[in-house]
Specification:
By secondary structure, the chain is α/β, with parallel strands linked by helices. It is 44% helix and 14% strand. It folds into two domains: 9-166, Rossmann fold (3-Layer(aba) Sandwich); 179-272, ProC C-terminal domain-like fold (Orthogonal Bundle), CATH 1.10.3730.10. An eight-stranded mixed beta sheet has the order 3-2-1-4-5-6-7-8, sandwiched between helices. α1 (16-28) links the parallel β1 and β2 (35-38). α5 (169-177) packs across α10 and α6 (179-196) crosses α7.
Amino acid sequence: MTGVLDRPLLLVGCGKMGSALLAGWRESGIVAAGVHVVEPMGVCGVAAGADVRAVTRVEDLPKGLDPEVVVFAVKPQQMAEVAPPYRRFVKSGTLFLSIAAGTPIRFFEEKLGRDAAIVRAMPNTPAAIGRGITVACPNPRATAAQAALAKSLLEAVGEALIVDDEALLDPVTALSGSGPAYVFLLIEAMTDAGAAAGLPRELAARLALVTVAGAGQLALESADPPATLRENVTSPGGTTFAALQVLMAKNGMADLMKRAIAAATRRSRELAG
C-alpha cells in the first residue's frame, strides 16, 4: 500500500467492518490528515485519539470540512437515509467509497449526483484480522488515481483487486463476500462428522478448525494449485481416496458449491434491484 491522504477521511459507520478499516488505516499511516467518524450509535470499535474525531450526526461535523474520501460502512438497509446528506461533498472532488453489499453504483449516483466519483467495494469478514480480500469497481467519474487510492485504503485490511465491470460484484459477493460462512460451515460439518465417528467433540472441533486453517495457509503459500495439493494427500486406495469418492461423486461437493454460489449470486442481483 502506498500514499497518504492530503485531506481528512470521513468514515460513515464504525461497526465491525468500519472499525477494522479504521484500525488498518491508522496502523498504515495512510490517514495522516486525520479521520472524522459519523456513528449514530455513538460507539466506535476503535478507541478515539487525536487523529480521530467522532460525532453521532452528520450535522455535527466541523463547518468547512473538506474530506478527500467519504467511506460508507453502514448496513445496506440504512443507506437510503444515510447517503443523501453527503451530497454536499461532491463539489470538492471527494471520492465516495462504499462497502455496502448489494448497493449498486447507480444508487449512489441517484443519491449523490452524477458528478460523484464512486467506488463500490465488496470486502469480507477476515478483514477484521487483516486477512480479507476485497474487489472494487469505480464508476466513470472516478479517476485512475482515485481508484488507486480506494485500492490502497482497502489494502489496509488485506488484498484488494479492481475490476471495471460492476456486474462481477454479484458473483464476487457470492464467492468471497459470503465465502467465510461456507468455510465456517465446513468446520462445523467436519466437527460433527468426527464426533459421529467416535471422537470426543472437543477434540473433533480442534482437529477440524486447525486442519482447515492450516490447509488454507498451505494453499495460499504453495506454488502448486489446490488440485495438485489434493492429489499429493491422496494415496490410491487409501483413506483420503475413500473420502473423496464420496465428496467428488455426482451431486457431491463441487455440484453443491456451484448451486450455493449460483443462489447467492441471484440473491445479490435481486438485492441490487
